[in-house]
Specification:
Layout: H1 2-30, H2 39-51, E1 66-69, H3 84-95, H4 103-115, H5 125-137, H6 142-153, E2 160-161, H7 171-182, E3 186-194, H8 195-202, E4 213-222, E5 241-249, H9 254-263, E6 270-273, H10 279-286, E7 294-299, H11 310-322, E8 326-329, H12 330-333, E9 343-344, H13 350-353
Parallel strand pairs: 1-3, 1-6, 3-4, 6-7, 7-8
Antiparallel strand pairs: 2-9, 4-5
């Protein structure tokens, strides 16, 4: 009997030794765009192994495996030279022949243009942008708006070579989303950007259905409703759904938590973000949670492959770690960001692209 047990023990040990390299190879294939020694990646894998093990006290049933992701700066770039939704609005104001902006809208467009490069936007820019964007796109059907966004996404990214705006997703973060989904996590995007921009932007890149995409919201109505009470107006065959000029919510900070509670109805167990706008979402995830939970903050510290700022983000790194978040360093943890064929140029054509009629501005370094 002892000999049999000894043989069985040897066989178990041998199987473990054989399986270990295979498992490592699987992880390597799943995270080919990551540095395998990245502390945040190791933490995520260890977390996943724990909460998906039915024998673990930290096992999470599939129905409660909820993960939320910010978009700009977390799933995709936000430094070319500013947020995608700001770029889209500037294109609408200055370059869309179907739109005639009034003087107030033109003045706001100049604020967008003139302050994007040095990030010197006035206080309250988030809400100011949301209000002007609502007005600039008012009257467009959702199809017309999606077409407008798509037509801008195929343009070459300012500040890079070899990439369109549609390609500006962080490849390592795509791998994270796919890894979670393979482990039966339901992934939601909870962004400060317009919900309908996010839907169009993500489609074809990530397998996240529309109903799992939360963002800034404007009111919508039927074509002929014209502000009438929705309890009294009846949708007809002559109607379509159009955007209005009424901003409902700028989905940042505590507003993200409110949206998650209303639209998901379950407390997330994983949260991914990159800024103070995601702190409330992170804290809602990791505090008072009946399940083991974790939050991850991505810092833009890569100055060679992207427009990061190591000096600026170092205090943030320390702050996020003190808050109990896992920190993802783009410089240290990502083998590649956008792909090896994408090159940072260090030159922006932002000012000349949106120059006032009859004037010209040089490219900005």
């Amino acid at each position: 009997m002892k000999r049999i047990l000894a043989v069985l023990a040897i066989l178990v040990m041998a199987a473990a030794l054989i399986a270990a390299p295979g498992f490592a190879e699987e992880e390597e294939a799943a995270f080919a765009c990551w540095n395998p020694e990245a502390p945040a990646l190791k933490a995520l894998i260890e977390y996943m192994e724990d909460v998906t093990d039915e024998a673990s006290p930290n096992y999470i049933p599939e129905a409660d495996r909820i993960a939320t992701f910010d978009m700009d700066g977390t799933l995709c770039g936000e430094l070319y030279p500013t947020y995608l939704e700001y770029y889209l609005l500037a294109r609408r104001i200055f370059c869309d022949p179907s739109y005639q902006p009034d003087e107030e809208m033109l003045e706001f467009g100049r604020i967008l243009r003139d302050h994007a490069l040095d990030k010197s936007f006035p206080d309250g820019m988030d809400v100011l942008h949301g209000e002007h964007a609502a007005r600039a796109y008012a009257g467009m059907t959702l199809t017309e708006f999606a077409d407008f966004v798509t037509n801008q996404l195929v343009r070459d990214v300012d500040g890079f070579e070899g990439m369109t705006y549609a390609d500006t997703f962080y490849l390592p973060m795509i791998e994270v989303v796919e890894y979670l989904q393979e482990n039966d996590f339901k992934v939601y995007v909870c962004s400060g950007s317009d919900r309908f921009i996010c839907r169009t932007f993500i489609e074809g890149i990530l397998e996240i259905p529309y109903e799992q995409i939360i963002g800034m919201d404007v009111d919508i109505e039927a074509t002929n409703e014209d502000g009438a009470d929705g309890l009294k107006y009846v949708y007809t065959s002559e109607d379509n759904i159009v955007r209005t000029d009424r901003l409902l919510i700028k989905n940042l900070k505590m507003n993200k938590v409110k949206a998650i509670v209303k639209e998901i109805g379950r407390q997330p167990v994983l949260s991914f973000g990159n800024s103070s706008g995601d702190v409330s979402m992170h804290n809602y995830t990791i505090f008072n949670n009946r399940y083991k939970s974790a939050a991850f903050m991505l810092i833009a510290d890569d100055e060679e492959r992207d427009y990061g700022n190591t000096e600026k983000v170092q205090p943030l790194k320390e702050k996020w770690e003190e808050s109990g978040y896992h920190v993802i360093s783009m410089k240290d943890d990502f083998r590649t960001i956008y792909g090896e064929d994408v090159v940072k140029t260090g030159t922006f054509h932002w000012l000349e692209e949106f120059a006032d009629e009859g004037t010209a501005a040089p490219a900005a370094e």
